[in-house]
């Protein structure tokens, strides 16, 4: 059975890490953010939120280069829809630091992003249809896929959402032929001297890609869509299915 860190465990892990780090900049700013998150957990303004709470919104998932961001921006142009950044502005400046840390610390940072996003979803107006470009499914998929000796048979199917996060009502996994995906990535990074380490692993390690793909597809109530289509075609498909969901 897959176990998930609680919000308090995430906060404590990050707190202990940055307090002991000799290279972390703006330590006091991040500690203040952690304190605010911890206070919000202790004094939840939405006591009715529980593990069954589902928000009517669209969550796009998938590898880099499949078109998530382009599609999210297109969906957000529809009346009543809006894009909700899942990398909150308050902790976005710290991303480069945490991306350079070990996998455990790095995933706790993204878990913190999920906690903040979940609270935003729970406390926001339900008249807005939020569009999320990645959320918890990416965090758990990468966390598990980085375990080289992972036995996929040991992972629940479907893979349940953690109790502490608000769940989107419509979750889409966009997948794409690897050759085409790499072509898009090459275009994106054509003027850059360094390709991100995680993308290098995706491109070079077929076993990692297979694990990642399999885990994404196991997420509870996720819908898989081939991203080898136009943005307009995918938008139409998603809006129709979302309307009927």
UniProtKB/TrEMBL annotation:
Keyword Metal-binding: no
Keyword Kinase: yes
Pfam family, one: Thymidylate_kin
UniProt superkingdom: Eukaryota
An annotated GO cellular component: mitochondrion
Keywords (A to Z) from UniProt: ATP-binding, Kinase, Nucleotide biosynthesis, Nucleotide-binding, Transferase
Transmembrane spans: none
GO BP annotation list: dTDP biosynthetic process; dTTP biosynthetic process; dUDP biosynthetic process
Stretches assigned to the Thymidylate kinase-like domain: 60-238
EC number: 2.7.4.9
GO molecular function: ATP binding; dTMP kinase activity; nucleoside diphosphate kinase activity
Similarity annotation: Belongs to the thymidylate kinase family.
Protein name listed in UniProt: dTMP kinase
Organism in which the protein naturally occurs: Rotaria magnacalcarata
């Amino acid at each position: 059975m897959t176990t998930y860190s609680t919000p308090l465990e995430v906060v404590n892990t990050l707190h202990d890490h940055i307090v002991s780090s000799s290279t972390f900049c703006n330590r006091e700013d991040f500690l203040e953010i952690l304190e605010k998150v911890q206070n919000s957990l202790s004094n939840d303004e939405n006591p009715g939120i529980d593990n069954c709470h589902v928000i009517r919104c669209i969550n796009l998932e998938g590898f880099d280069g499949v078109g998530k961001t382009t599609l999210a921006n297109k969906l957000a142009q529809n009346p009543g829809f809006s894009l909700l950044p899942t990398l909150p502005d308050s902790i976005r400046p710290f991303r480069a630091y945490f991306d350079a840390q070990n996998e455990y610390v790095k995933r706790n940072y993204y878990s913190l992003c999920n906690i903040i996003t979940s609270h935003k979803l729970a406390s926001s107006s339900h008249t807005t249809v939020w569009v999320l470009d990645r959320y918890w499914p990416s965090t758990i998929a990468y966390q598990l896929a980085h375990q080289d000796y992972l036995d996929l048979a040991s992972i629940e199917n479907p893979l349940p959402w953690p109790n502490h996060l608000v769940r989107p009502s419509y979750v889409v996994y966009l997948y794409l032929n690897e050759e085409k995906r790499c072509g898009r990535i090459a275009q994106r990074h054509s003027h850059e001297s360094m390709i991100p380490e995680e993308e290098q692993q995706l491109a070079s390690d077929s076993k990692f890609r297979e694990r990642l793909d399999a885990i994404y597809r196991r997420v509870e109530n996720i819908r898989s869509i081939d991203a080898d289509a136009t943005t307009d075609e995918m938008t139409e498909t998603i809006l129709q299915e979302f309307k009927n969901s």
